[in-house]
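Continuing from the previous page...

OK, I double-checked the sequence for MFS transporter against my notes and this is the correct one:
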Amino acid sequence: MSHRETRPVGRDRQFFGHPRGLAVLFGTEMWERFSFYGLQGILLTFLVADTAQNGLGLPDTVAVPIASLYSGLVYLTALPGGWLADRILGPRRAVLIGGIIIMAGHLSMAIPIKNPAMVFFGLFLVVAGSGLLKPNISVMVGKLYDDDTDARRDAGFSVFYMGINLGAFLGILITPYLAGDDRWHLGFGAAAVGMAFGLLWYVRGWPRLTHAGIGPARPLSEVEKQQTRKILVISLAIAAVAIAIWAWTGTLTLATVPTVVTGLSIAAAVWYFVYIFGEAKGITPAEKAGLRAYVGLFIASVVFWMLYLQMGSVLTAFASNSVDLDSWGFHLPAGGVQNFNSIFILVFSPIFGVVWLKLGTRFGTAYKFAIGVFLVGFSYVFLGWLQTRADDGALVALGWMAWVYLLLTFGELCVSPVGLSVTTQLAPPNLKGQMMGVWFLGPAVGTPLGGQAFAFLVPRVGEAAFFYILAGIAILTSVVLAVFSPALHRLMGRGGHGPDATLEAPPEPEFGRGSTGGDGRG
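Thanks. Re-ran it with the corrected sequence; updated structure tokens here:
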């Protein structure tokens, strides 16, 4: 009889039939998502609110790139966050430290002072802490099932993602109402309280995590520690000098920071791809073919996230400026409109899972991506039409936004879980961790790109044309992807994955409201 069969059932099956540690991670992630999406629900409206309403009074073309950057950098910092856990901290300590940093960031933003420096310092802390917490708490969920079946592990992740979506829904529901039109710091404080609840739950349940996440998987050797310290010191010195020169030239502004950081994110993505292909030594020709196919899917994912992950920025600005938020007999804060996505994800995730299983090998991964990118593009066509109506002086009824978010959600369910699955299946055995990092680069690059497109295009062509241009990019990408899908599937087939690498799609990730995706949800 195996060790797994002799474990006491009472200890191992106390949370929806799963290990007790899952309840700890479920609650921690739920409250962390409450804080993250609660902040996202009010960030844009705070940035654009005038100073008489205790906001910063920034124009949309400055505020939207900042809000987009906040959403995108969380996925970029997941890469160093994962490395720190693997080599130095271990996932368990990384989650704890990350949660403390996140709470400190929200507290910094909650201090009711006029100087915006504390707000941006708080955003920096939230992004840095999320990079430590987000990837590593998912790793710990998997560690709870090291000696268990794949089916039970998948079921455990399904329960875990329920916590992600529940926390996101509650954060977007509660925080904008607390913030109101001028009580922003109360909203920031609510996010801090949410993260504090998550930390208390995590520390209290620490013993229930048993062996999960204790210590780094591959601790640094003494030589590697010395090399890491040297690289860190040199990098910090170069960054300090660069920022000092940037400030001295007088070009260090709220408008230029998102542009520069977006450029650095693109450079990081290019470097990471070069690194991945450089590390692909000793892999088979079939595996190399699979990696080449993955490049096409990754480009499509960047376009997808460029449109999809503007919910907390572009779409919130649209809701604030052009939507009748009282049209259903009650006032819905502009940030609260994002909860259409939360509701639709909870309703339609299991339906799409069944659909993909029924279709099986008859409908390949690239075709699913093409449909997802097309749907998100079509939602922007819809937004362009609605913006045209708003430009004529008519506020858009709230119900129209439900249709926009329905299209976005359907697109997400075609790309996000499918992308996670094909990433794990196309990755060579020795590159699976790095390839998951590549998948996170999609939203890390695409999200700030969407914000930069808004800042560049809107002053020149207007908001309606902005929506139509991004829609055209997405629809054209979907058509090109559909045309080349047979070739991509042949390359994937050479890797032994057949025409469809996602026959058993994983539970809906947090992108969107929660892995990258995302959340995605991520």
